[in-house]
Write a structure and sequence with these properties.
Pfam families: Mor. By secondary structure, the chain is mostly helical. Helices cover 57% and strands 0% of the residues.
Length: 89
């Protein structure tokens, strides 16, 4: 996330009003609900995790146990169990 200088984008009267509440501090202005993006929308993270989880489930069905899967994918045994349980549905 990059910062935008308020003096470059806000009219002076709005800037003065904001300064009454927050003077010289950082202020986060959230996105409008209509502009929000879901997690992983800008990257391939969602696809990569889905592929990884699919591979874990396939390896489990081929006979790898949870301990071996945990070592292979660098995840806790609980995480492997959760992925298998979710993939099983």
């Amino acid at each position: 996330m990059s910062y935008i200088k308020a003096t470059d984008v806000l009219p002076e009267e709005i800037l003065l009003l904001i300064q009454q509440y927050v003077d010289g501090e950082y202020l986060y202005i959230p996105r409008k609900e209509t502009n929000k993006k879901s997690w992983g929308e800008n990257t391939n993270s969602r696809k990569e995790l889905s592929l990884r989880n699919s591979n874990i489930y396939n390896d489990y069905r081929k006979g790898l146990n949870i301990k071996n899967l945990s070592s292979k994918y660098f995840l806790s045994e609980k995480s492997i169990q959760r992925i298998i349980r979710q993939s099983n549905r």
